[in-house]
Amino acid sequence: MHTRRRPEANEILLGDNLELMRGFADGSFQMMYADPPFNTGKAQTRRTLSTEFAEDGDRVGYQGRRYRTRLLARSSYKDSFDDYLTFLAPRFEEARRLLAREGTLYVHIDYREAHYCKLLLDELFGRECFLNEIVWAYDYGARTRRRWPAKHDTILMYVKDPAGYHFDAQAVDREPYMAPGLVTAEKAEKGKLPTDVWWHTIVPTNGHEKTGYPTQKPVGIVKRMVQASSSEGDWCLDFFAGSGTLGAAARELGRRYVLIDSNPEAVEIMRRRLGDRPPAPRRPPAARTAAPAARSHE
After folding, report:
1. Which three-class secondary structure state does DSSP give residue 156?
2. How far from 55 is each of 51, 68, 72, 82, CA to CA, in Å?
3. What percentage of the chain carries pLDDT values higher than 90?
4. Structural domain tally of the chain?
5. Is residue 83's pLDDT more than 80?
6. 205-232, pLDDT tens digit by residue?
7. CATH number of the domain that 35 lies in?
8. Residue 29 sits in which domain range?
9. Nearest in space to 45 (alpha carbons), one of 215, 240, 246
10. How far is CA 42 from CA 18, 185, 263, in A?
11. Please, are residues 240 and 263 in contact by the beta-carbon 8 Å criterion?
């Protein structure tokens, strides 16, 4: 068995994230962000998970297996979604092992899969380690006339130790009050701390941030996670790295990163995006005070 290592330099790795994660030592990362695929076999297709294996099924899932849909009420959570969750479970287990004691994992997931992933994460981390459900709200794309248009993603936030995690609200960029006339002029000028609902545009098609990767997330939302849950010099990990947005946010904020993806196109995009900049400083993380399990903000 090979000796597990700690990261020493910013890395962009191509390969199976499960195998690559197993090569790192326990507690190597302070903050993690994961934006996993949605079990469809198509990069931009987001459909509800199918539940019954059938060679003539109407849906194609992980590794090309076909499924026939059926009502959730006919089976348990584990029976219905075993294939997809079996893919995710060992990766989330490794994520927990790799988190530092004060560390935080953010899982960015489609609203149709969020509740299944939360049940899985509750089982792996413990319900007491669930900290937040963050809603990223945006306004773009087609609008159905048959139901309320779905214009949000879900980000599940779990900590390694609910009694001793790092959360620095003061490091997060403030945002304008929605009703500035209801607060003092001083407060309106200062802005407010974000809540668990984040209004943020998608990556503009003609913006400088755009890489061409189909599922790219905006730096602004990932930057907010990095600011709150890590300090300068800390290590951050994204094991479904895609276009490398976590790496871009980490570099900007003076953190260090490891990015993993199994798609050669994604790795090439990340290397073009990040490879021509100097590495983040390697000074030790600043001393921090553990956050209590619950806290209120202005």
Report:
1. strand
2. 13, 9, 20, 17
3. 46
4. 1
5. no
6. 444 544 444 444 678 889 999 999 999 9
7. 3.40.50.150
8. 11-42+81-274
9. 215
10. 21, 49, 13
11. no
